[in-house]
TrEMBL record, chain A:
It is found in: Cell membrane. The chain crosses the membrane at residues 6-26, 33-53, 59-77, 84-104, 110-127, 162-180, 211-227, 239-256, 285-306. It comes from Cryobacterium flavum. One of its GO terms (molecular function) is branched-chain amino acid transmembrane transporter activity. It comes from the Bacteria. It is a multi-pass membrane protein. The keyword Membrane applies. Keywords: Cell membrane, Membrane, Transmembrane, Transmembrane helix. PANTHER family: ABC TRANSPORTER ATP-BINDING PROTEIN (PTHR30482:SF17), HIGH-AFFINITY BRANCHED-CHAIN AMINO ACID TRANSPORT SYSTEM PERMEASE (PTHR30482). The keyword Zinc-finger does not apply. InterPro entries: ABC_transp_permease (IPR001851), LivM-like (IPR043428). This is Branched-chain amino acid ABC transporter permease. One of its GO terms (cellular component) is plasma membrane.
From TrEMBL, chain B:
Residues 5-233 form the ABC transporter domain. It comes from Cryobacterium flavum. GO terms for molecular function: ATP binding; ATP hydrolysis activity; branched-chain amino acid transmembrane transporter activity. GO terms for biological process: L-amino acid transport. SUPFAM superfamilies: P-loop containing nucleoside triphosphate hydrolases. Keywords: Amino-acid transport, ATP-binding, Nucleotide-binding, Transport. Belongs to the ABC transporter superfamily. This is ABC transporter ATP-binding protein.
């Protein structure tokens, strides 16, 4: 194992221990905030798969977040309060929506993809308002029960729900990380970098984008389900433009090219909202300022700070380029 | 010997600009053809049209009798064409090995990472290094390796010596000659006459989107006026 791997494992262990100890160190309110950060962070991670890894800028990711939320909420109201079933149903609903939506969307890129994603989310927003008999309309869906992890283990307290959320987020994040680091994920990075080049290497770009869209959709829906299981409430705002916009802001704040940056972005946004909204009427103004500063001074997002600090040490260890090919001159005939 | 790759009256361009204007060319199995031409005559557009990266407006591209013109690039790549694009075009954030693995297409008898590292041992020492940190020569080797791992029937090389130092070109020529000696069918676009001629047995010259000369390398060497007329070589 090289020294980098030791550092990475040390960071991972510290994070896991910190998450495990959080209920003993934070009061109930702060623990609720941490749960929210984890949930929104997972939703932002799923968006990062689209935006950062695949290069598809979405302004409608709330479509999946809301769908997962309504799926888990309706299951709880009408069928079962099983937490795991809620997640599974949300994932299934997410993929059922992602397949046709992805088929239509990934033929486009850039601004057209962005507008299509927004259109899908707005469509679901309108449907959630108009299908009052199913969704409760603009009043939201009431009567969602506490999730039950196993028979007899009801997640009725903030710490119990926190542990459940943290466990799900860690497991799903590791799965997403493995997906991104797999050859399939590398192909997505290649497509992001240059789709035509990947096409010429034999990759069906549309197929890869569709799969990435579905993976992002499923994870986004799972995050939405977690949110509803935690808050026991879901409303059309879960599909709303602001939800999509905040998720995109989290990805940009954390660093578009770094999956873990989305979690950092979620933490910044939730903490900023909590701290600023208690002091100012327009907390979004402060968030806007933070966003401008990050884009201007940290174009790689806050997650790039660690890499900036580590860069001088890393350079010292990297082998120098060999004399093979130094590009010193243009060839004469 | 029958033509493995046959191009018939191929036309291609960008929008209203007609760049490739009726190119016909045959590449026999195991042959090496070098395509010369001044800058801007349409050589790279022709190569991209073969790969489906530019959609031909008309004409045929037949690989072992199978029509490829107008098919998406990924289908053409799967059919057996691979390109080493001009300027290498690696993915700078991915490591050498990750770049190479993007090219892997398993075949019962063909290139694997192990056999590739035997051919290009320098890459074996740099598997974990980001491709963007490699020197130009090393990047070109990765680009060639990535194309070889597709185990293509025909390898297209678009100006592989561009931007490389003479010493590195000599090394590159050695690698390409080894591949040719192994029977790889190659179509190479090159500005460097020496490199192009040493690794080919046929020469074609392109001018204003058309093939204006075809001959064997021996015939081309005997006719210096051809190089003078079309390539401006004194």
């Amino acid at each position: 194992m090289n020294p980098n791997m030791y550092v990475r494992w040390a960071i991972r262990i510290v994070i896991i221990v910190a998450l495990a100890l959080a209920p003993f160190l934070l009061n109930t309110f702060r623990l609720s905030l941490l749960s929210e950060i984890l949930i929104l962070g997972l939703a932002a991670v799923s968006l990062s798969v689209l935006v950062g890894v695949t290069g598809l800028p979405s302004l409608g990711h709330a479509a999946f977040y809301g769908l997962g939320g309504y799926a888990a909420g309706l299951l709880s109201v009408h069928a079962t309060d099983s937490a795991i079933l809620g997640l599974l149903v949300a994932a299934v609903v997410g993929i059922i929506f992602a397949i046709p939506a992805g088929w239509l969307s990934v033929r486009t890129t850039g601004i057209v993809f962005l507008m299509l994603s927004l259109a899908f989310a707005e469509l679901l927003f309108s449907l959630s308002q108009s299908l009052r008999w199913l969704t409760g309309g603009s009043d939201g869906l009431a009567g969602i029960r506490n999730p039950v992890l196993l028979p007899g283990i009801e997640l009725s307290t903030v710490p119990s729900r926190y542990y459940y959320i943290a466990a799900v987020v860690v497991v799903v994040y590791i799965m997403v990380r493995r997906f991104v680091d797999s050859p399939f994920g590398h192909a997505l990075s290649g497509i992001n970098s240059n789709a035509l080049r990947m096409d010429a290497l034999g990759y069906n770009v549309s197929h890869y984008r569709r799969v990435a869209y579905s993976v992002a959709g499923v994870v986004g829906a799972v995050a939405g389900a977690l949110n509803v299981q935690n808050a026991r409430f879901v409303a059309p705002e879960n599909f709303g433009f602001m939800t999509s916009a905040f998720l995109l802001v989290m990805v940009i704040l954390g660093g578009v090219k770094r999956l873990h940056g989305a979690l950092a972005g979620a933490a910044i946004l939730v903490v900023a909202r909590d701290e600023l909204s208690s002091r100012f009427d327009s907390w979004e103004l402060g968030l806007g300022l933070i966003l401008v500063l990050v884009i201007y001074f940290l174009p790689g997002g806050v997650a790039s700070i660690v890499e900036r600090i580590a860069a001088p040490f890393k350079k010292r260890r990297e082998p120098r380029a060999t004399p093979l090919g130094t590009d010193e001159s243009v060839v004469s005939r | 010997m029958s033509a493995l790759l046959e191009v018939k009256d191929l036309h291609a361009g960008y929008g209203a600009s007609r760049i490739v204007r009726g190119v016909s060319l045959s590449v026999e199995e195991g042959a090496g053809i070098v395509l010369f031409g001044r800058n801007g005559v349409g050589k790279s557009t022709f190569m991209q049209a073969l790969m489906g990266m530019v959609t031909p407006s008309s004409g045929q591209v037949l690989l072992a009798g199978k029509q490829l013109a107008g098919r998406p690039a990924h289908e053409i790549a799967k059919a057996g064409l691979a390109i080493v694009p001009q300027g290498r075009r690696l993915f700078p954030d991915l490591t050498v090995q990750e770049n190479l693995m993007l090219g892997i297409r398993q075949t019962p008898k063909g290139w694997t990472l192990d056999t590739l590292y035997e051919l290009l041992p320098r890459l074996a020492e740099r598997t974990a290094q980001p491709a963007g940190l490699l020197s130009g020569g090393e990047q070109q080797m990765v680009a060639i390796g990535r194309a070889l791992l597709r185990n293509p029937s025909v390898l297209l090389l678009d100006e592989p010596s561009e931007g490389l130092a003479p010493r590195i070109i000599a090394e590159l020529a050695g690698v390409l000659r080894t591949l040719r000696a192994d029977g790889l069918t190659v179509l190479i676009v090159e500005q460097n006459l020496k490199l192009g001629l040493t690794m080919s047995d046929h020469v074609a010259i392109m001018d204003v989107g058309k093939i204006v000369h075809e001959s064997t390398v021996t015939e081309f060497r005997r006719s210096p006026d051809i190089a003078r007329r079309y390539l401006g070589v004194i």
